[in-house]
Amino acid sequence: MTRPTPTSPSDTTSPRYPGRFDAKVAVVTGGASGIGRAIVARLIDEGGRAVVADVNPAALEAAAAEFGDRIATVRVDVRDEQQVEAMTHAAVERFGGLDLGFNCAGLSARAELTELSRDDWNTVIDICLTGVFLCVKHEARRMRERGGGAIVNIASLNSHVPMFGGSAYACAKAGVEMLSRNAALELAQHRIRVNTVSPGLTDTPLTSGIHQAPGLEQAFMQRIPMARWGTPDEMAAAALFLASADAGYISGSNLFVDGAWETSGYPDLRPFMPR
Ligand SMILES: NC(=O)c1ccc[n+]([C@@H]2O[C@H](COP(=O)([O-])OP(=O)(O)OC[C@H]3O[C@@H](n4cnc5c(N)ncnc54)[C@H](O)[C@@H]3O)[C@@H](O)[C@H]2O)c1
């Protein structure tokens, strides 16, 4: 298969909407890196305030240095319910309440199903699915007190598309989509909307290894119709749209932000499996 001509990346930095999130308070898990960090940057640019929650203290320090008093940083492991609850209280204590939740914390582990350890399965499911459940639960409790809100969970293309060596991750991400749909059903009565963003291949620390493995990036590009990476800012733009008043009648949706990748599926990753 020949490599498609990449589409122009000229539109990868989408416009800001000054004041769109004035007086809005968010928590952003995984907010110290990649897609979460891009969400924080955009939210701040558009008038919001954020509790940036992450398990990585050094990255949190860097975020605090960059964003100053427009954010509060909290070290949180999303697997720990007490820490998650404290994260939502931090939004109330520091900024007076909670309106928005962006649940981005996640990681990937690759192993063929027959070789995947129970521990690795549990780790991925705990962080990528159970962690999102705990965050939605406690964010919704705070939003209910405030009379409403919006939650955006970051799933993946793998919420619909399997990946060789990715059974735990794909199952967790499919679970995030259904969790979001179920939450949308239950939380509508409290004026809380819940949606999912499913990113395609996005250039972040999580995927940096793809640039290094010979032939792997090309294998991906042959399957992605727009033949380029997505940027963290493009994922943030979609997430903030779903959190904004423009999406006021959207709840329970899963928005693919993937350069049409969902139409074509994954490359064969067998030659690229870790040995
Ligand atoms: N990059 C991609 O191509 C891509 C594609 C689809 C989906 N996603 C999803 O997007 C989300 C963000 O990924 P990214 O690419 O920005 O990766 P990233 O590694 O840059 O950021 C993930 C952040 O989550 C934090 N984190 C990990 N485990 C945590 C835990 N237990 N508690 C709290 N924080 C934790 C990390 O410290 C990191 O700061 C993830 O859920 C990922 O699965 C990414």
Shape summary: globular
Using only CA atoms, what is the Rg? 18 Å
Per DSSP E runs of 2 or more residues, the count of β-strands stands at 7
Structural class: alpha/beta
CATH homolog superfamily: NAD(P)-binding Rossmann-like Domain
Following the backbone from N to C, one meets helices and strands in this order, namely: EHEHEHEHEHEHHHE
Poorly predicted spans = 1-10
What small molecules does this complex bind?
Answer: nicotinamide-adenine-dinucleotide
CATH third-level topology: Rossmann fold
Q: Report how far apart the termini are.
A: 26 Å
Estimated helix fraction: 40-55%
Explain what the structure shows.
It is a single chain. With 275 residues, the protein is α/β, with parallel strands linked by helices. The protein has one domain: NAD(P)-binding Rossmann-like Domain (Rossmann fold, 3-Layer(aba) Sandwich), CATH 3.40.50.720. It contains eight helices and seven strands, in the order E-H-E-H-E-H-E-H-E-H-E-H-H-H-E. It has helices at residues 34-45, 57-67, 81-95, 118-146, 167-187, 209-212, 216-223, 232-243, and strands at residues 25-29, 49-54, 71-75, 100-103, 149-154, 192-199, 254-257. Strands 3-2-1-4-5-6-7 form a seven-stranded parallel β-sheet, sandwiched between helices. Helix 1 crosses helix 8 (232-243). It starts with 24 loop residues before the first strand and ends in an 18-residue tail after the last strand. The structure holds nicotinamide-adenine-dinucleotide. Residues 29-30, 32-36, 54-56, 59, 76-79, 104-107, 127, 131, 154, 156, 199, 201-202, 204-207 line the site of nicotinamide-adenine-dinucleotide (NAD).
